[in-house]
Write a structure and sequence with these properties.
This protein has helices at residues 5-14, 24-42, 73-77, and strands at residues 83-84, 87-88. The chain has 95 residues and is mostly helical. Strands 1-2 form a two-stranded antiparallel ribbon.
Length: 95
């Protein structure tokens, strides 16, 4: 597929890129090269190839999924300006 100057002008306008008229032939050529490369990639047989997230195999570090209550109620409430009966006390905002 070949990109003509009118199409390059339209793409530049849609991308909100100011391209002077004398640079449009070069832009059209570059866009044609990009589309040619994409068409070349479409010819590659990828049947049976698993998708990759990286070129090097990586395994994420995992920890056991254990539910805990933290056991730090006193330490957390020590930072509160007002704590009552084991909870944060906040001023009433709705009357």
């Amino acid at each position: 597929m070949s990109i003509d100057i009118d199409t390059a002008r339209r793409v530049a306008k849609l991308a909100r890129i100011a391209v002077p008229e004398d640079n449009l032939p070069g832009l059209a050529s570059e866009l044609s090269n990009i589309i040619g490369f994409m068409e070349q990639l479409n010819e590659v047989d990828v049947e049976g190839v698993e998708p990759m997230t990286s070129v090097t195999p990586q395994a994420l570090k995992r920890r056991d999924d254990v539910v805990t209550d933290g056991g730090q109620q006193e330490a957390v409430l020590a930072n509160a300006p007002d704590a009552r009966e084991g909870f944060f006390a906040v001023p009433k905002v709705v009357e």
